[in-house]
Amino acid sequence: MSPETISQTNRSHRHGSNAGQPLTRRDGVLKVTGRATYAADNHPDDMLYAVPAVSRIARGRVTALDVTAAKAHAGVVEVLTPANRPPLAHDPDEKMPPFGFRVEVLQDDGVRYVGQPIALVIAETLEAATEGAALLDPQYETATARTDLSNGDRFDTATVGIGAPARTAYGDIAAGLAAATHVTEADYVTPAQYHNAMEPHAVVAEWDGDRVTLDMPNQAMALSCAAYAAYFGVPAENVLIRSPFLGGGFGSKAILNGPQILAILAARMLQRPVKLVLTRAQMYGPVGHRGHTWQKLRIGTDREGRLTALHHHALCATSSFDEFLEPAANASLPLYESPAILVEHEGLRLDTGTPGPMRAPGEASGSAALEVAMDEAAVACGMDPLEFRLANYAETEPGTGRPFSSKTLRECYSEGAKRFGWAGRPLEPRQMRDENGFLVGWGMGTAVFHCPHFPAEARATLRADGTALVETSGADMGQGAWTALAQIAAEALGLDPDQVEFHSGVSSLPDGGIAGGSGHTASAGLALNNAGEDAIAKLAALATADPASPLFGSGNIGVVPRSGRLHRLDDEGRSESYVDILARTGQTEVIGTAKAARDQEAAAHHAMFSHGAVFAEVKVDPDLGQIRATRLVGAFAAGRVINPRLVRSQYFGGMIWGASFALHEEAITDRRTGRIMNADFAEYHVPVNADVPSLDAILTEEHDPYVNPLGIKGVGEIGITGTVGAIANAVWHATGVRVRRFPIRIEDLVIGRS
Amino acid sequence: MSLSISLTINGQARTVVLDDPRVTLLDLLRERLDLPGTKKGCDRGQCGACTVLVDGRRINSCLALAASLDGAEVTTIEGLAEGEILHPVQAAFVAHDGFQCGYCTPGQIMSAIGLIQEGHANGDPERIRELMSGNICRCGAYQGITEAILEAQKTLAEGNRRDAA
Q1: Which residues of A are catalytic, by number?
Q2: Is A492 part of any domain?
Q3: Range of the domain at A515
Q4: Does B39 sit within 8 Å of A247, measured CB to CB?
Q5: Among A152, A200, B27, B128, which lies 20 to 30 A Cα-Cα from A326?
Q6: Nearest residue on chain A to B132, alpha-carbon basis
Q7: Full-model pTM
Q8: pLDDT at A170 over 90
Q9: Overall number of domains in chain A
Q10: What residues have CB less than 8 Å from B35, skipping those under 6 apart?
Q11: What ipTM was reported for this prediction?
C-alpha cells in the first residue's frame, strides 16, 4: 500500500485538542494487519535477487573466486566481482560529507574486515542467488588481524563522532586534582555493539533510463538521494527513495553502505529490478556499529563532596580505513559543575567494519563510564549518590557558563526518587535481601542528551472541503512520526487530526531532514507548524480583504484558527469557516510552505539538553551471580510532549537499551581471525520479554522558550544514558563488587566476590 | 524438478507448484505468494518475526521447508482481521502501543494468538513474558505487548463465554 492511501484509513482516537494528546498511532492498523510496507516487501515484475558473498577473513586479499561454478548454478544470472564491476561516478575511497563514509563496493581485491562484500551474485530466485554465493569458494591471502588493544594502531585525532572536537579543556585539571582531598580513578571498557534493527538492510532498486526508484529503509532521505546521485552520475532529482516505514534504524540506516550500492548497480547493469536483503550475519560488518571503547576517569572531590576536577579520556576503536570515533568522553561535558574539566579522545585502528552512530552515540558509552565513576566518587565521599549529584548540580553549562535553554533535572531527580522509593537506601552495599534470599541493590544515574535541530521543509494544503494535506519526507522508524507530526500540523492548522492527511516517507516530498539525533519531531515538526501557519496566514489574508466576510478588516487585529474556522482575535463571535472562505473566493486550495531551522542566536547563547534521572533495582543470586534488573524508574524532562503515549514508549525503549548495554549486549571477536563469533540473535544477546523489568517513565513537565518555537526537545535516545550506570551501580550496591566492564557478567560477580 | 503441494492459507485453498525444494514457508509466502506481512528477521529461528500458525500451532516459518507442508493449514497476519474489524489481539496491540517500528509485530501477534489458544497465558504477566520470549522486539515495546496480550486474552475469553451461552 502506498503512503498516499495509507493515511486515508486512519482512525485515531482523539481526546480533546491536538498536540499533547495520547493518540494511538496513525499507522497502527497497518502495522498490526501486515499491510505496512517495508522495503523488502516490494516485488516489481521481472525482479532479480542479489546476495552478497562476504569475506571470512579480516585482512588480506581475495586471490580466487570460482565464478564459473556460481554461474553454472541454475538460475544464476550474473556474478559481480572486482573484475567486472561496472564503474561508479564517485570514488568509494573518498568520503562524502557530512555522513558519507568510505564504502566497499568491489573496488579491488583487498579485504579490510570480516563481512566485507567480495562479490555479488544475482539470480532469478533467492535460493539460487544464495547457493551461487556459497559456490564462489573464495581463496585468500591472509594477513594478521588487528583485533584489540594489544595489536591495534593508536592515533591522535582532531574530531570525534561527526565533526565534534576530540579535546575540550576548561580550567586547570592538574591544579584541580592537586586540590582534591580524594581522587577517584578507574578504567572502564565498553564493547562493540551492533544495531540489530529487526528489519535487515534492504533495497529494491528499479531503473528507468537514468532515473532510479529505491525502496529502502532510510533515516536521511535527501542526503541519501544526493549521495546515490553522486555514485551513479545522475542528478539528485532522478533518485526517488521510498521509505514509508523502517523496521528500526537506531542510526544504522542513515549512512550509505556497500551492499546496497552494489545492488543498485546490478539493477542498472542488468536492466531489471533487483532486491537485496542482508542476512542477519551480514549486518555485522558493512552497516556500522557502536565502537569498542576503553575509558579512564579521574574525579577529584573536596571535603564537602564537590568536584575539583573531572578528567575523562576515551580510547575509541575504528576501522583501518575510516574514522568514526565514539564521542564518549564528551558525555562528561554538560552535566556536573567542576572548576576543571578535561575530556579527550584517542583512536585505535582495528580490522573491523567502520563504526557509526548507534542510538545515543557517545552519550551511551561515555555516560555508562561517567555515571559509574560518579557513584564511586560518592562512595569515596561517604555520600548518597543522589545527594552527591545534587551537590555537583550544574546551574549553567559547565565550562562555558552559558545558561541552559531549560533544565528541569532537579525535578527529575526528586520525582524519580519519590516514585522509586529511594529514600532510606543504605549507603553500604550488600545490605538488602528479598524474601527469596536474593541480594537486592539500588542504583541511580543521570540521563542527558543534546538537542540537535536539522533544517527541514514542509508543505500544508488547505482544501476546499475544509480538510488539509500536509507533507514532509520524514521517516517513521517506530518513534511515531506519522502521529506526532500530524498532531503538530493539525494544531497549526486549527483542525482535528482526523481532518489532516499526512504524507511522508517519499523523497520527492519537501525535505523532512534527518530522522536521527532525537531531533526529527522538533525539526520536521517545526517545518510543518510553519507551513501550517503560512497556509492559515494566506487564508486569513483572503478573508480579511473580502468585504463579504465577517472577518473583513480584521487584518491588523489578527485571527486565530480553531476547529476549521478563523476567529477574530478580539471577538470570538466573529468567525468564518475555511470552507466558506475558500468557496466564496473561488479558491480550490491554499498552499502554505516553510523551511525551518534553528535560531542561531538562541543556539549561541544557550546550552540545549534533555535531562533525566534513572533509578534501578537489581536482584542477584548470591550463589550463582545471576543478575536480574527488576525495576527501572526514569524521570525525563525533554521540553514539550506532543504525544505522551508515544513518548513513554520511546523512554521505555531507551531504558531497555540501557539494560541491554549494562547486562546483555556484546559482539565478541575471535582474536585469531577477527571474526565476530556471535553474529546472530541466539548469541548476540538483546533483551527478550522476560528480561524486561517493571518499567516506569515519568514525563517531567518542562517549558523551553529557546530550543525551538515549539519547545520540543528529543526523547529517542536519552533513556539509555542514565540507565546503564543506574543498573551497574545497583549491581555494586547489591553485591559490593564494582564491575567496570560492560556487559556485566555472572563471572564478574562470582570471581569479583572471591 | 517440480513439486506440487496443497495448502490452505488464511482459509483459501491453494495449489503451489514448487520448482525448488529449498524454498522455506517464509520465502514461499513472501516471495512467491504475495503475502509479505510475515517478516524475515534472522532466517534461523532465533527472532520470531516470521511466526505463523500451521495447523493451529505457532512455528517459525523460516525453519519449515514448504515442500514438507503438503495439506497444511496456514494462518498469517493477513488472515486475522475480518474486513476492517481487527482481531482482538490486533486491536489490543494498537491500544497498548505494543509496537514501535512494527517489523516484529506480525510475529508477535501470531505468537500471542498461539499462546492464548494453547491456554498457556491465563492472566499471568510473568508467564506471558516468558512464553513470548521467542519473539524479539528491538524497539523494546515489551511492556505494551504484555499488557495487550493480557487484555486480548480477557476479551477473547468473554467472547467465548458469550458464544457458549
Answers
A1: 717
A2: yes
A3: 3-36+455-597
A4: yes
A5: A200
A6: A689
A7: 0.96
A8: yes
A9: 2
A10: A34, B9, B10, B29, B76, B78
A11: 0.98
